[in-house]
Specification:
9-stranded mixed β-sheet; 287 residues; mainly beta; Thrombin, subunit H; single chain; 2 domains
Length: 287
């Protein structure tokens, strides 16, 4: 891990990672997660076979509370051809030698995804072999390869910590795809005045993670740079899925479950100018 204190220039390349400083007092750590995958594709191979995707482990933040049994609340399967669900899909990647799956969606730009930082980087390991299947359903979807990925540099030292509202504030990642979305994208919202909110993603406790689900929830509070909402029944694999409001703007992404008093709540980061700067940074090739 590279200490943030050694990044003195506006751009520095260290250990294959690009660090950008001076954006809203935060730095971005960017990497190219698919050099090997792109090379394999050029020779006719594909790392993410259907069998490998089926075996991928649903992601969580290392301390998520077991979700309630399906059907006890209000999570329902959605039609992935409809707005805004068609903007989202299932993310596949390898981290520290393990194949994982999580959720993501196109946001703000036609070729940029927002996902959870805890999927893309934990401890001293970042994700490789990153692909996104838009509108994934039972093994099928439109495939996109990711050629740039970034998290906040401030995320790196806290990434192994147990889930908390403070950690959740930094829990987002931006990913650039080599092709533009064929179905549109979410509008990013920094407006935290919402109350009613919906969440979407691929929780492993519903349909074995093979289908997209949504749930209705209510914002309970904003704690620093993160939101708390309940009820929640999404289990592992929903990480990075959108929180969206009635006008279909995205206001956060699924981070982790924590106890708020006696209530099981979902945390999610509040988007800021830094979020917009990260999206622009990644869209520009981390330059």
């Amino acid at each position: 891990m590279v200490p943030k204190s050694i990044v003195s220039a506006s751009l520095a390349v260290l250990g294959g990672l690009i660090f950008c400083s001076g954006a809203e007092a935060s730095d971005f750590a960017c990497w190219q997660p698919n050099k090997a995958l792109l090379a394999a594709n050029e020779s006719g191979g594909d790392y993410w076979t259907k069998e490998r995707r089926d075996r991928a482990v649903p992601e969580n933040d290392g301390g998520a509370i077991t979700a309630p049994e399906p059907g006890k609340l209000a999570a329902t399967r959605v039609d992935v051809t409809q707005t805004p669900f068609k903007y989202g899909g299932k993310l596949f990647y390898t981290r520290d030698g393990v194949d994982y799956t999580a959720s993501a969606q196109f946001v703000a730009e036609d070729n940029v995804l927002l996902a959870a930082a805890h999927s893309m980087w934990r401890g001293d390991k970042h994700a490789v072999n990153v692909v996104f299947y838009r509108a994934y359903e039972d093994g099928e979807g439109t495939r996109f390869v990711v050629d740039q990925a970034a998290v906040l540099t401030d995320w790196i030292p806290i990434s192994p910590n147990p889930p908390s509202a403070e950690k959740s504030a930094l829990d987002y990642a931006a990913l650039r795809t080599t092709a533009s979305s064929d179905a549109g994208k979410f509008v990013l919202s920094k407006d935290g005045t919402f109350t009613a909110v919906k969440m979407m993603g691929y929780p492993g406790n519903f349909g074995d993670g093979n289908y997209m689900y949504k749930q209705d929830s209510t914002k309970l509070a904003q704690v620093g740079g993160s939101y708390l909402a309940a009820p929640t029944e999404f289990g592992t694999g929903a990480s990075g899925g959108a929180w969206f409001v009635p006008d279909n703007s995205i206001v956060s992404v699924v981070s982790a479950q924590i106890m708020q008093g006696k209530t099981l709540a979902m945390t999610g980061p509040a988007f800021t100018d830094t979020t917009e700067a990260m999206i622009a940074f990644v869209k520009g090739g981390c330059k």
